[in-house]
Prior knowledge:
binds 3,4-dihydroxyphenylalanine, alpha+beta, 37% helix, 11 helices, seven-stranded mixed β-sheet
Amino acid sequence: MVLDELKNELEKELKGINSEKELKALEKKYLGKKSKIAQILSCLKDMDIKQRIKMGKEINEFKKKTEALIKKKSLDIGGFDRKDGGGIDVTVPGKNFLKGHLHPITLVTREAEEIFSKLGFEIAQGPEIEDEKHNFDHLNIPQDHPARDMWDTFWLKKKGLLLRTHTSPVQIRYMEKNNPPLRIIAPGRCFRYEATDASHEINFYHLEGLMVDKNVSASNFKAIIRKFFEEFFKKQIKLRIRPSYFPFTEPSFEVDIQCMICKGKGCSACSQRGWIEMAGAGMVHPNVFKAVKLNPNDWQGFAFGMGLDRLTMMKYKIDDIRMFFKNDLRFLEQFS
Ligand code: DAH
């Protein structure tokens, strides 16, 4: 075909073009008034009818093809300086970028901290890698005592070190450095070597509480814990305190609230009991005071350890603790 050579030339030249300005010049060269195509067009009238039809068709095809190639090139190089916006559709809605948000357990921890702060409690912290002394011995759980079996422990290779099984060692650490009267809470992550199910995980969150003064009783504890739950759930709750055993308290008790997921009927979150165990608690054992060199005849206090995961489950009606650690965005995005 007559125009084949012209087409090859055009394609070769297009490759070297990087700007809209060069592209405009090329358009002029191949399709403009002084272009080869324009020259051939002007000769059409001198051709015989057969040739004229054939040539006319070829010219049209060439023009179309050239226009399409130029448009494509214009899109490829951005087309920013074109009046019609070039390759950019300015009406397309902008892309939202992903924003992070807090995990439900963090939200609940912060809320709990706020409520206890209003009740005069300070926030204390301790390490997640603990030593045996703080996690057990000073809490009146001596080595080889069967009470240690209550905490299935991840022991570390280095002797005497472990992943803390509860936040109670923070009580010891705080009292080693601070004298009573004191009121603290210590929220944090704990670990246990145990089988998982809807209400048990190998890592979970506790909120420890400790109040020590000259005259602190179990009824103070009852009032404070009830106040906390009512502030937290923003309604009246059914609370039950029953006797229990912990080595670091005497007497010891367990605090249950009526399960809010099934309203007491029984479900997987409360192991069909209708009540859910929210905290262990008791009056600080004299041996704990002795371990931190305080005289048990001078001081008394209560302590408690509350499950933050359980609190979160009750608040948001989540019936499986494992959801917290699955990193399933469909679950997590509900808290943004
Ligand atoms: N540390 C206990 C646990 O792991 C919970 C607990 C019970 C904490 C009684 C306390 C307490 O401070 O007084 O289950």
